[in-house]
Amino acid sequence: MITVCGELVVDLIPSRGRPDATAPQYTAFPGGNALNVAVAAARLGNAVSLMARVGPGPFGRVLRGHAERNGVAVEAMVDAPEPVSLAVVELRDDGSAGYSFHTVGAADWQWTAEELARDWPADTRIVHVGSISSWTPPGSDAIADLVQRTRATGSALVSFDPNVRASLIADADAVRARVERLRRTADIVKVSAEDLQWLEPGAELDEAAVRWAGDGPALVVVTDGGEPLRAARPGRPLVRRDPPRVEVVDTVGAGDTLAAGLFSGLVRTGTLTRQALTELPDDDLAALLDDAALAAALACTRAGADPPTAAELEAARG
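^ thats the sequence. predicted structure below, dont judge the formating
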């Protein structure tokens, strides 16, 4: 079981219509780091459970229904009275996305330790946390405690992606401190070059990847859009891999799909303990990263967070 814990967000993505339109039209896509990762992992053939607090109303039903239709177990989803988070997306000329968030008082950040303990899927072997819910109080403390307990028991590999959203951050120092605690506690850290530059302005990517790997994780993966991704492990040489070149529609959910692709590879190869991840040969790790990057590239060829299925990934490998 892959368990994903985090937020659900409705992405309002502009339709590509008349360039002179004075009233842009938007399409609502289910999204958010946790939902995207969970759906991507399920489409790749994994058993996935989603722990999320979902608000009421039509958007809440859309988010829950999207998870269910894609084979994600929703028993750990909490029906919450607070509203659903919204993100208004701006698409740049190269297909990359900017976000304007509407999240004040949203359900996603209100986790309690009791909720997390009550709904935790017992057969979890990989748990992924990250994005806004991991560094937004009050729920962020409960998530950090969950990560620390899981890492201490060794019952599951812990993955963390900070997925920084700077427009939502009022206290940068506090968020950087929460991210540092989580990245030092997790077994796997995936971070984008953009996020790393916000967390450590002026940092050099190769050096930062190696240094972060020495701070506690067994694997640090730094993504950089269409540029080579980096993978660092303690005491091992840095691995660099070139992602596939595709015609980009948008990049919404690409990083989430890459994370899900990596988890899928770890499950497929039985690399489900920290020791196994540490001992994985570099060539085998490179193959897993290439597969994950291919899944992310396929997601970029479609609008919104729309990751590939296992069959589509298999066809693209050929």
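The chain has a mean pLDDT of 92.
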